[in-house]
Structures are given as C-alpha cells and as structure tokens.
C-alpha cells in the first residue's frame, strides 16, 4: 500500500491513501487558485488546446507548457501518457490558467506565466510504501544511491539516470528546461526531504514540478 502527502500544506492539508498506483491513472494534480480561471472558448482556451496538440511549438505571450516523459519508456507509451494527461488536466482543473498533473510515465504542466528555466518549488507531493525496513543503515543506503544518481543525471543530456545496488533500485529525473546545475540542486534538495517523505520505508518518491526521484526494493524501470 502506498500513501501520498502533498506539499505545501496550503495547497492540500490532508493525506490520501492510495490502495493501488496504476500507470493509467494520474498520480496527482494541482490546480491554480480559482481566481485564475479562464472562459471556455476564450483565446486562452483555444491556445491551450493548441499547446496540448503541439507541445513542441512555442505559443507566445499567453500559454506556456511542458510535457516530460519518464526517460525509460517507449515513444508510444510517452505519446499515450501525454495524450491522457492533456485530456485529464482539463477535467480535474477546469478553466484554470495554471495546472500540473503527474502520471507514472509522464508529467504535464501549463501556465499563463513563463516558468521555463526556473526550479518549481511550489508543486510537490510524496508517495511512499507504508511498510518499513528494519535496518538502521537503510536510509543511508537510499540517500547514497540517489545522490550518486543526482550527479549522473545532472551531467546527462536527458537529465535522467537509473541505478541499482544489491538491495535497491533508484530513478531520478529533471525537466529539460533546467540547466545542469539547476537539475542537481533540484534533485539534491528533494533528496534532503527523505526523512520527511520516506523514513525507513520500503519504497518512496518525492515528485515535483521540476524533478523527481523514486526508489524501490523491486525492479520498476526498464533497462
């Protein structure tokens, strides 16, 4: 069983229990304040639809968007995830001018404010296995693996890295609008949250708008 915590508290002040985390369902989403709504059929709405249909084309002035697929999945799975995210984000955040949604295989975010090249420190949540590991050295092993992967990912063109030890598998990734140094800072800051997120847990994730990490005791990424 996995549990989910959101950060900051002002966005969501309770904890949800997830009985099953499936790749086909969103992991989480965050909508902007209700005061930042747009009107259906408005130019913003039209531009948002254009953005979802063609995320690699810049839409000036009004809508800024980013899609990121997990670095180990296929192009077909990536496309499928982004298509699902672009439909679901409008359902769960109707008429919001800024929103973000996460799936196992991808992230999608948009805003009326240009966020490219800036570490997102606002949108973040935790996922963790509710079962504990009875080993006083476990936390240190997790941190060591993730820190090593942070250094590797920040120097990779894809800002993505996976790795394993005899006990653990780990994955880290940054959105590709960040620089190498920004990616490392984002991941290192996320890793410092291990005691709050996943202290002694058999698996866990810190998932943010600019970077994320995951570790498990079982294989979960594609080699």
Q: What is the helix content?
A: 25-40%
Structural class: alpha+beta
Total domain modules: 2
Biggest sheet, in brief?
7 strands, antiparallel
Poorly predicted tracts of residues: 6-23
Corresponding CATH architecture of the largest domain: 2-Layer Sandwich
| Largest beta sheet: strand ordering | 2-1-7-10-11-9-8
Q: Identify the CATH class of the largest domain.
A: Alpha Beta
User: Beta-strand level of the residues, as a percent range?
Assistant: 25-35%
Signal peptide: 1-23
GO cellular component, one term: extracellular region
Domain Gnk2-homologous: 10-115, 120-220
Family: Belongs to the cysteine-rich repeat secretory protein family.
Describe it:
By secondary structure, the protein is of the alpha+beta class. It is built from 5 helices and 11 strands; from the N terminus they run E-E-E-H-E-H-E-E-E-H-E-E-H-H-E-E. The chain is about 30% helix and about 25% strand. It folds into 2 domains: about 1-110, Gnk2 domain, C-X8-C-X2-C motif (Killer Toxin P4, Chain A, 2-Layer Sandwich); about 125-215, Killer Toxin P4, Chain A, CATH 3.30.430.20. Helix 3 (about 140-155) runs antiparallel to helix 4. The protein starts with a strand and ends in a 7-residue tail after the last strand. It has helices spanning about 45-55, 75-90, 140-155, 180-190, 195-200, and strands at about 1-5, 15-20, 30, 65-70, 100, 105-110, 125-130, 160-165, 170-175, 205-210, 210-215. The strands form 2 sheets. The chain has a 7-stranded antiparallel β-sheet. It has a 4-stranded antiparallel β-sheet with strand order 3-5-6-4, with helices on one face.
């Amino acid at each position: 069983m996995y549990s989910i915590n959101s950060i900051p508290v002002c966005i969501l002040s309770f904890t949800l229990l997830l009985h099953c985390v499936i790749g086909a369902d969103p992991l989480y989403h965050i909508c902007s304040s209700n005061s930042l709504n747009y009107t259906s059929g408005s130019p913003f709405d039209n531009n948002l639809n254009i953005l979802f249909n063609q995320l690699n084309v810049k839409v000036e002035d009004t809508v800024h968007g980013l899609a990121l697929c997990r670095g180990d999945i296929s192009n077909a799975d990536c496309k499928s995830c982004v298509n699902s995210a672009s439909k679901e984000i409008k359902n769960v955040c109707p008429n919001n001018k800024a929103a973000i949604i996460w799936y196992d295989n991808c992230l999608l975010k948009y805003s009326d404010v240009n966020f490219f090249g800036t570490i997102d420190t606002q949108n973040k949540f935790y996922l963790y296995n509710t079962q504990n590991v009875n080993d006083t050295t476990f936390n240190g092993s997790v941190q060591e693996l993730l820190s090593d992967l942070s250094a590797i990912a920040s120097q990779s063109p894809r800002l993505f890295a996976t790795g394993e030890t005899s006990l653990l598998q780990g994955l880290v990734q940054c959105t590709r609008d960040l620089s190498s140094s920004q990616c490392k800072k984002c991941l290192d800051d996320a890793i410092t949250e291990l005691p709050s997120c996943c202290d002694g847990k058999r698996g866990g994730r810190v998932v943010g708008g600019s970077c994320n990490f995951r570790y498990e005791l079982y294989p979960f990424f594609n080699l």
